């Protein structure tokens, strides 16, 4: 059974930083597309960042230059370093994985974590 568990969310002031962590287990293959998504109340879910099995990354325009996605060498842990946080970054953040080496534009991402709340406010 594939399991994804997020942690690291919390309350932070504008301009501050947070580091989200996703612990992954139960994968048949170790090199998969993984990503971070977020959803704010009343808004659609947004793809924040993804990382391919080969390590290539992509970011939403709204977070470029501020967020960084990465994995450990064993690819059992996914990270999202968030700097220069803004109030509009407030959302529930989810770790997700897709059954493919490369991240697809319309990937289904069948595996999801429970989410962790990030609130940016003074």
Q: What's the helix-strand series?
A: EEEEEEEEEEE
- Estimate percent helicity: under 10%
Oligomer state of the chains in this structure? single chain
First and last CA, distance: 40 Å
Main structural class:
mainly beta
pLDDT under 50 segments (min length 5)? none
Task: Please state the average pLDDT score.
Answer: 93
Strand content: over 45%
Net shape: globular
Total number of beta strands: 11
Number of helices: 0
**How would you characterize the largest beta sheet?**
7 strands, mixed
Radius of gyration: 14 Å
Supply database-style keywords.
4-stranded antiparallel sheet, 11 strands, mainly beta, 48% strand, 7-stranded mixed sheet
Summarize the helices and strands and which ones pair or pack.
Elements: E1 3-7, E2 10-12, E3 18-25, E4 33-39, E5 46-51, E6 57-59, E7 67-71, E8 77-82, E9 91-98, E10 111-112, E11 116-120
Parallel strand pairs: 2-11
Antiparallel strand pairs: 1-3, 3-8, 4-5, 4-9, 5-6, 7-8, 9-10, 9-11
What do these coordinates show?
The protein has 122 residues and is mostly beta strands. The chain contains no helices and eleven strands. The strands form two sheets. Strands 2, 4, 5, 6, 9, 10 and 11 form a seven-stranded mixed β-sheet that branches. A four-stranded antiparallel β-sheet has the order 1-3-8-7, with no helix packed on it. The chain has strands spanning 3-7, 10-12, 18-25, 33-39, 46-51, 57-59, 67-71, 77-82, 91-98, 111-112, 116-120. β5 and β6 (57-59) form a beta hairpin. The chain starts with a strand and ends with a strand. The chain is globular and about 40 Å long.
